[in-house]
Amino acid sequence: MTTAPRTTRHRRVHAFGRYATAFASRGAASAKKNSADSSGRGWSVTPKTATHQVAIAFLKNRNSGPGKAIYLTSARTVENVNVHVAPYGKDKLLVSWESLKNAKCSAGTCTGTFTGTHLRLVDWTGKFVGADNVVSARITGDIAVLKDGSLTWAYAPVTPAYGTPLTGSSPTTTTLRIARLTP
What we know:
The chain has a four-stranded antiparallel beta sheet, with no helix packed on it. Strands 8-9-10-11 form a four-stranded antiparallel beta sheet, with no helix packed on it. A three-stranded antiparallel beta sheet has the order 1-5-4, with no helix packed on it. The model is unreliable at 1-10 (pLDDT under 50). 24% of the residues are buried. It is mainly beta. It has strands at residues 2-3, 11-15, 18-25, 30-33, 43-46, 53-59, 70-71, 78-88, 92-106, 109-123, 133-135, 144-145, 151-155, 177-181.
């Protein structure tokens, strides 16, 4: 048994009275209450997968918990991190994430080779709407939804380095770009 696997940030989006959340998870093959945790909230989890997979779940309303996770990725040797989701038009969602090949994870920190940011459109049932578009840019902050339904985000045009654990230093640049995706 291992301690509960960490998931990357998840995002909740709302569009036209519908709600979704996207996240990276290793899943749980089994989970037991951890008697050594004095708070009573701890669990010991055996993960289902060796790498984090991207999932989306839909909520009945803004106060409900997420429904069953629908996995968007399944490659056993690819680590998926930095997941984002945003409504795109009236009937789609944009889910984005970064992928790492040759990933090694320990204590919630993953290293590997950055292979791009995936942009995938899905409908409100989780079905794919076309193939992934893989770009070299990162989406590191929130995606803003503009009045016309376009999506926009700011990014630094640098390739992230995941070869070693992050130490607080990042690639440096004096350039900031704005990306926009129109429906």
